[in-house]
Every structure is written in C-alpha cells, then in structure tokens.
Amino acid sequence: MDWVRGEVVGHGSFGKVNLAIPIKQNTQFLPSMVVKSCGVSHSATLIDEKKILDELNGCPEIVQCYGDSYSFENGEKLYNVLLEYASGGSLAEKIKNSKNHKLLEFEVSGYTKGILKGLQYVHEIGYVHCDIKLQNILLSEDGKVKIADFGLAKRVGTKKDDNLRCELRGTPLYMSPEMVTRGDQGTLADIWALGCVVAEMVTGVPVYKFSDVTELLMAIGVKNQLPEIPETLSEEGKDFLRKCFVKDPRNRWTAEMLLKHPFVADHDDTVTFTEIPSTSPKCPFDFPDWVSDECGQLSVTCSITCLPLPENQEKLNWSSGSGGNLPTDRLRELVSEFRPEFEWSCDGWVTVR
Known about the structure:
Transferase(Phosphotransferase), domain 1; 5-stranded antiparallel beta sheet
C-alpha cells in the first residue's frame, strides 16, 4: 500500500508515530492508520513488535498491524510499521478529560472486560505484554478497548542471559512483586498491572504514592505493601481487585478466571462515552531523570529520585550486573548508576511511497 507520512501523533516504546495517509483514496476500504517508524539500525525491537502483532492478528481488543515497509528519508533508512489508528485516544486521556478525573464504575467495568479479553488472547498465544498501563490502553472511535504498544512484550518463559538477570521490564508503578524481587514476568504480572489500571480508573490517581522510585520498588518487593483498594468501589469491584493483588502469582487469578468474575461477567459491553479526545494517544517524556529528544528516544539514569504522574511515567527496560540473591541485593543493583545511550536523529520527515 502506498502512503504518505502525516502529522506526528505520538511516540511508542521504540519509535515515532505519525498518521499514515493512503495515496489511492478510491480503493475499496482504506483503514485509518498510523505508522510507527525508527532508524533501521535501531529497529530490532520494532521488528519484533511487528512479528508479535502478526501472531495476535484477529483479536478486536488488540491494535491491528497492516504491514511494514522500508523508506529512505533525509539520507536515513527507516523501518515502518503500519498500525490501526485508535482515534479515541488512551484511557489516560479519557480520565484526564473526564469529570473529577475519574470514571464511573460502569465504565470501569466495561473497559476492564475489554482489556481482559485482549489479555486472555495474548496469554493464550503465549506472550506477556509486560507494560499494561493506562497509556497503552487505547480507544477506538466507538470507545472500544484496543491494547497497544507491544514493544516490551516477550514469550512466556523466555529468560535473559544470566549476566543480565537484573532486568526491569515495564513501568515501575505497575510492576508486580515477583518482577521486582526476582525478575520473573509471566502472564500473571499482566494481571497485577491490570489491577493497578482498574484502581486508577476509579480514583484518578496511582495506586502507590511515592516520590522516589527506590522507595516504590522497596514497598512492592520487600515490604509486601499491597495497593490500596478504593473504598468507593462496590463489593464486587473490591473482590475483583483482591484477586489481582495477590503477592504470590500462583494464587493470582488468570484473565480467563477474571472474565467470569461478577464485576465484569454481567457487563453487556455497552459503555456510554463522553468527551472522547480527538487526538491520538501520546507518551510524554518529561520525567526530570529521563532525557528525551523529539524522536522519543530515552537516555535512562537508574538513580531516579522522582516518580512521575501516570501520564508522565516512562518504561524501564535495562539491566545491570550480578549480585546477591536477596530482594534487597537485587534492588540495590536496580538503582545503581547505569546509563544506556541512544543516538539517532529523525529530523525533517519527508513524503514516503
């Protein structure tokens, strides 16, 4: 499909996102599309994301992939992935634009059911999303859920090299205890993150209130501090969150089990939507300890001293050396000084065919 690059509408985990406008407007059906692009020398993760989306093709609760291509722009070879355009924005934007910056329980139940349907499919195919959060749950024009941004997703059971065992993959506020303490990230880690998303939809604020990432990780991984369950939720809603916020993942409910929970099972999938943003979801990069250029690339400092609000949360996907086996030893390694460097430029986009 021939297309031209439109305006910038956001950034994904590892690439810049523009509207993609088909050149031939007189063909049968032309889907609304965006294109995620990055330099070929940095395209390994985006290529993997495209392969994962191909395997997940067909699930209505997951952003669809329409193909990929290469292009030369301003002397640089780019890798491009064409994706479904979720014009309703993200859940983060939905909450920001809602009255009192929170959602009604009826809406929360509907969105939660859609997310669970998508997660069940992801897990059945054998993947873990690894970064479920408000910014990565998009809404279609009619308000239906679309799980997006599989840049950090991985196969269930895959392990990193032992020399890189201190990996953090995801966004700190949504990390499960087993991820923080042991680096274990199975499908049940997505369920913990889902619980954080549900609680945040209800209250409009993060489930943890820490100004320091080190304190946050210690609370999750060492102090066994569970997220607070909103008092305004119904008993069914509270029980649903209790099934998500179980420290031992072996006792945490799966997506399939949660879909049968009364909090979502009786929902008719019809949600009333108001004030749906007209812009595409974005991932701001303005956390003081994360330096970002206009292409959305990150320069990560692990000695982080300030935790951003949800809309400014960034992803951690970095590793450091080996150390002790205790959770406290692992956490010391995770907050040690380490700065990966990313260097590439994406100035002056041009028309692509």
